[in-house]
Amino acid sequence: MKIVLASKSPRRRELLSNLGLDFEVIESNVEEFSSEKHPSRYVMDLSFNKAMSVAKKLKEEAIVIGADTIVVIEDKVLGKPKDRDEAFIMLKNLQGRVHTVYTGITIVRTKDFKYVSDFEETKVWIKKLEDEEIFNYIDTGEGYDKAGAYAIQGVGALIVEKIEGDYFNVVGLPISKLFDILKREFDVRLL
What we know:
The protein is α/β, with parallel strands linked by helices. The protein contains six helices and seven strands; from the N terminus they run E-H-E-H-E-E-H-E-E-H-E-H-H. It has a single domain (about 1-185), classed as Maf protein. About 35% of the residues lie in helices and about 25% in strands.
C-alpha cells in the first residue's frame, strides 16, 4: 500500500527513508493552529489536520502520516524561532532546565478514512550555557526551523545533557509508536 508523509520536515523524511520505506511526500500546507490547550491534544490536533488534508486530496488508496512537534517548558509552548533574537531567548530559557518535547502523529487510511491519532512525550535537559555558546550554536543555523531552536541530531547534540524517553520523538517522529500503530491498527508491517 502506498505510504504518504504529510510533512515538509526533512528530518521526518530522513527518518522514514532510514527505515527503507518507499513513500511519497505531499505537504499539507494547513495553518498550524489549534484551539486545544493541552500539549498532547494540541499536537494530535495539528497532526490530524495535516494528515486529513492530504488524505482528502488523494484519489488512490494510501496510508497518510501526519506529525507535529512542539517544545513545552513550564506550560509555555515554544515553536520555531522567527529570528536570531527569538532563538537566543528560547535557548536561554531552556538551558540548565528540563523541558518536554511532544509529537503528535495521525495515520489516515484513505480507503475508509479510518484514522488513529496518538502522541509521544520526551523530557530533555539542556546544559547550562554561556551566552557566547548560545550565539555560536544559533549561528550554525540548524535550529531555525525546529521547535525550541535546537536540533538534537546535529550540532545541538552538544548542548543536550540528557533525555528521558524516545530520541526519535525529539527529532520529530516517534518511530516506535508509528510502527506499532501501523501494525496494530492498519495491518501495515514494516518488518
